[in-house]
Write a structure and sequence with these properties.
The protein is built from nine helices and 14 strands. It is of the alpha/beta class and 254 residues long. Bound molecules: zinc ion (ZN) (2 copies). The site of one zinc ion has 6 residues, from helix 2.
Length: 254
């Protein structure tokens, strides 16, 4: 019963990641309609009825679009922070568990560690999952790296890491100035350079899968993110890139 993970899609138009040990299937965020989620899950060999739980990171629409309907229609237990719930973006959730942003909890045999992150939402968290001595970190939607994030993600066996924008492309790109400032600011999103700096600072000795995600289609490209990662001063596993339409297929943490 090893940890494995896959993405239904990643980027500013919608995010959803599945974490599984073969018995417990946890969906992290659901930024797609129920119909689209059903289709994308089927590509991974799963149905809505297979889902054990739905974890929400924060209330931005690219993460919650499908959450209320999915929660109501399929009666899936949903976990989120009080701040995320009180943002009132989600409406009535029948099987809601409010979590503390720094207290681990268990879903089946998987331990879930929420990690508070600097992002412009009410009480955003990201998650580290542990099962049988292995750990998988999901880290997107944060504007800066603080010591709490560094401590939580060091030593992970697998990582889904945001590299949202190339700073130059964002600066000369189509976004209005206020949005450029927001994205590049300390409560926005990680740039390619920040993602590389994060990897330089954490212990990556055990890292067997690095997936780069939440890549902006307007302000970044896989080629630019890959070029930035190639500047890393230490050897690392070859990165994979999650895209908006395809996400990425199952990766097993061995
Ligand atoms: Zn997002
Ligand atoms: Zn966000």
């Amino acid at each position: 019963m090893m940890l494995r993970f896959a993405s239904l899609g990643s980027g500013s138009s919608g995010n959803a990641t599945i974490v599984s040990d073969g018995t417990t299937h946890i969906l992290v965020d659901c930024g797609f309609s129920v119909r689209e989620t059903t289709y994308r899950l089927s590509r991974l060999g799963l149905a809505l009825t297979d889902l054990t739980a739905l974890l929400v990171t924060h209330e931005h629409s690219d993460h919650i679009r499908g959450v209320p309907l999915l929660a109501r229609r399929c009666a899936i237990p949903v976990y989120m922070t009080r701040g995320t719930y009180e943002s009132r973006a989600l409406g009535n959730i029948p099987q809601l568990t409010l979590i503390s942003s720094d207290q681990p909890f268990a879903i089946g045999e998987i331990t879930v560690q929420p990690v508070p992150v600097p992002h412009d939402a009410r009480e955003p968290v990201q998650y580290v999952f542990r099962r049988a001595g292995r750990s998988l970190g999901i880290l997107t939607d944060l504007g800066s790296i603080d010591h709490c994030v560094l401590a939580a993600y060091g030593g992970c066996d697998a990582l889904l890491l945001e590299a949202n924008h190339d700073r130059h492309m964002l600066a000369v790109g189509p976004y209005p100035m206020s949005l450029k400032r927001r994205v590049a600011g300390p409560w926005g999103h990680l740039s390619n350079e920040q993602a590389v700096a994060f990897l330089e600072q954490i212990d990556t000795d055990r890292l067997q899968h690095l997936v780069v995600g939440h890549i902006s289609r307007k302000n970044n490209s896989i080629a630019l993110a890959a070029a930035a990662l190639a500047t890393l001063s230490k050897p690392l596993c070859a990165p994979a890139f999650a895209c908006q339409d395809e996400g990425f297929g199952w990766l097993q943490v061995v």
